[in-house]
């Protein structure tokens, strides 16, 4: 779906790079695709024209997760953690993937259904601890999985681009600090915080 449908077709039919995918449009029988054991993956921007309510009218409740930069998998059942936390929200797994853009992959899990929609901060730091890149999001999964839509124990995978500030495009951060925060009365309050080293070979 979306403006890259034609380009994906080139990759599938002409170059063979995407020979493993089947392209469908907005008229497809999505329920049958999933019933046949296939995965349903769409660009994140698809949700601006086909929002979650559009998908749920065809599939029932959905549980979108990020599976690659700017790609979202539509699931009709949540993936649950074997050992969810006793309380609160944690990052069960996280790592940095290097490339033209550095991406932070995080799998969140909550002990219970969250009662507030926390925001995500993602900061790239240089070797002096100064922030030089950022990938904050108002809500996980490219804005489409606010935390109050999660279920208890659900694994919510998300991907954040760590974008260098202007003038620092060719400089890689040494550390990524990330977590969840709320804004109360104009003040920022971190709820959970993590950090991971960036080891990108040049």
DSSP summary, beta strand count: 10
Main structural class: mainly beta
Silhouette: globular
Question: Per CATH, which architecture of the largest domain?
Answer: Sandwich
Distance between the termini: 35 Å
The chain-level mean pLDDT equals 88
Percentage of residues in helical conformation: 10-25%
Instruction: Report the CATH C-level class of the largest domain.
Output: Mainly Beta
Order of helices and strands: HHEHHEEEEEEEEE
Percent strand equals 25-35%
**Would you identify the regions where 5 or more consecutive residues have pLDDT less than 50?**
6-19
Biggest beta sheet attributes: 7 strands, antiparallel
Number of domains: 2
CATH topology of the largest domain: Immunoglobulin-like
Radius of gyration: 18 Å
Spatial strand arrangement across the major sheet: 4-5-8-7-6-9-10
Number of helical segments with 4 or more residues:
4
Keywords:
202 residues; mainly beta; Immunoglobulin-like; seven-stranded antiparallel β-sheet; three-stranded antiparallel β-sheet; 13% helix; 35% strand; globular
Outline the structure in words.
With 202 residues, the chain is mainly β. The chain has 2 domains: 5-73, no CATH class; 89-197, Sandwich (Immunoglobulin-like). 13% of the residues lie in helices and 35% in strands. The chain contains 4 helices and 10 strands, in the order ααβααβββββββββ. The protein has helices spanning 5-13, 30-35, 46-49, 52-59; strands spanning 41-43, 65-68, 71-73, 89-97, 102-110, 119-125, 131-134, 155-164, 175-184, 187-197. It has a 7-stranded antiparallel sheet, with no helix packed on it. A 3-stranded antiparallel sheet has the order 1-3-2, with no helix packed on it. It starts with a helix and ends in a 5-residue tail after the last strand.
